[in-house]
Amino acid sequence: MQRDLMAQLTAWRNHPIRMPLILRGARQVGKSWLVKEFGKQFSLYIEINFDKDASAKNMFSDDINIEKLLDKIALYAGEKIIPGKTLLFLDEAQECENSLKTLRYFKEELPELHVIAAGSLIDFALQKIGVPVGRVQQLYLKPLSFGEFLTVSGESYLRQALLNGNVDISIHDKLNELIRNYFWLGGMPAIIDSWLAYKDPTICQELHDLILRSYIQDFEKYAKKHQIDHVAKVFYAVPEHLGNKFKASKIDSEVKSIQLKNALDLLVKAGVAYKCFHTSAQGAPLAMGKDYDKFKTYFFDIGLVMRLLKLDLRQWITAPLNINFIGAIAEQFVAQELVAYSDPSATGELYYWHRESKSSNAAIDFLTVHNDHLAPIEVKASVKGGMKSLMVFLDSHPNSKYGLKISERYYSKHGKLVEIPFYAIESWMKSTDQHPNQA
Fold first, then answer.
1. Between 432 and 101, the higher pLDDT residue
2. Coil, helix or strand for 141?
3. Are residues 422 and 326 part of one domain?
4. Which of 140, 164, 196 delimits the end of a domain?
5. Of 140, 156, 186, which marks where a domain is finished?
6. How confident is the model at residue 358 (pLDDT cuts 50, 70, 90)?
7. Which of 25, 388, 427, 429 could connect to 141 by a Cys-Cys bridge, CB 3.0–4.6 Å?
8. Does one domain contain both 81 and 172?
9. What are the contacts of 155-160 at 24+ separation with CB within 8 A?
């Protein structure tokens, strides 16, 4: 299973001022598999999994001595450690906070050694001990993007055609069909691997259920006892309120707002949910106009969303645009794609815009910066839908040269409105032109 982040790992390996790396990301997005695959580039590979072997924690004490620590690890692994040739992988490192504390000392005392730490709930441990700024690097692994889905499905030529801007309308229907498959499959590696091996939707949905149960079981690992019920309520509520401004009262009017907001923050830290913040910025950085009190929410994987919403797969296959939550699902997909192709060294922030007034309300689904210009994005599940809010935004934001509409429709351009299909988000984000297909 090819992952785009492998290129960043290879660049990290060869960088002259490399630091120890923390690989972050939600559970079961493929962190451990990716590092093991990356380890094949080294002559020697040593893995310590603190979840599988709790006794391994005893090697990492508060009194940090890198030379003595490496002697212990070599004896533990039965392998000689050779800086420059050995990759040391500390998996499920959140189970041993001292292992994370050693990272800065690896940088200071033995920078030649390649060290990676990862873990499904590592962000909670880092919150306690802090991230040693200037001593470690970070990368985030997300579910497979649609582009990666094309690659692993044997359709890499389609992905390359998209990136090259050579998508003829003759393959438009095929790409839309692949998009519909990705919508219900999502980007979790185990699901895609199963689909490619068996083409059995029942098996895929059983795996969806197993993954969801593992996330629910994790609540006890990072939420206090009195918070677990609140976390569960928000976990199920996020898919039901996709793209809507977060209002605790809509989740449970009998629970204090701050308790549900805190529960959401735990899910965000676990990598399960994203916040999409309102911004009033007129240009980059969008965070300058960020309103922390106004935000929408999205889940981290569209396939799991569909399963939580109890998708009727037969109905989806026969009439996908007619299901009652298709508009929200389309937004979920775009949110996920925007995050997937963002800077892998950051979590990937999402923004939107709205104007709330009695005389004139207007809202833009997403707002990003593309080639130094503000790019407002409207998402339409079908080819139909008005663009009034988009025009209002363009009139009030001179640094925005055009608005982007994303739907199932083929590429087109009408004045300041550029339309691209769902499958073209990657090529648009990576293009230097406003219209990657130049239609």
1. 101
2. coil
3. yes
4. 140
5. 140
6. low
7. 25
8. no
9. 159/426
Written as one string, the DSSP assignment of 259-318 is: HHHHHHHHHHHTTSEEEEEEE--SSS-GGGGEEEEEEEEEES-HHHHHHHTT--HHHHHH
Write the pLDDT tens digit of every residue in 86-130: 999 999 999 999 999 999 999 999 999 999 999 989 999 999 998
* Helices and strands in the chain, H and E counts: 19, 14
Q: What is the DSSP secondary-structure string of 161-226?
A: HHHHT---GGGHHHHHHHHHHHHHH-S-HHHHHHHHHH--HHHHHHHHHHHHHHHHHHHHHHS-GG
Using CA atoms, how far apart are residues 112 and 295, in angstroms rounded to an integer?
43
Bridge partner list, 367: 376
Residue 13 parent element (H or E): helix 5-14
Contacts of 61 (CB under 8 A, 6+ apart): 98
Residues 6+ apart with CB under 8 A from 21: 9, 12, 115, 116, 117, 136, 137, 138, 139
CATH, residue 115: 3.40.50.300
Q: What is the pLDDT of residue 368?
A: 96
Are 115 and 159 in a shared domain?
A: no
For residue 83, whether the previous peptide bond is cis, meaning omega lies within 30 degrees of 0, is no
Residue 376, classed as helix, strand or coil, is strand
User: Which amino acid makes up residue 242?
Assistant: L
Region 389-403: what's the mean pLDDT? 89
The per-residue DSSP string of 79-112 comes to S---TTTEEEEEETGGG-HHHHHTHHHHHHH-TT
> 359 is written with which tokens?
């005389």
Judge if 191 and 94 occupy the same domain. Answer: no
Mark whether 311 and 239 lie in a shared domain: yes
Please name the residue ranges forming H helices in 341-397: 388-396
Q: How far is residue 189 from each of residues 50, 201, 300, 433, measured CA to CA in Å?
A: 23, 15, 13, 32
Position 439 in a domain: no
Same domain assignment for residues 192 and 288: yes
Please give the helix or strand (H or E) that residue 414 lies within, else none.
Answer: strand 412-414
Instruction: Answer whether 48's CB lies under 8 Å from 89's CB.
Output: yes
Let me know whether 112 and 196 are in one domain. Answer: no
Confidence (pTM): 0.94
| Side-chain-side CA neighbours of residue 146 (13 Å) | 30
85 shares its domain with 210: no
Tens of pLDDT along 146-179? 999 999 999 999 999 999 988 899 999 999 999 9
> Where in the sequence is the domain holding 383, given as residue range(s)?
146-430
Based on the structure, what is the number of domains in the chain?
A: 2
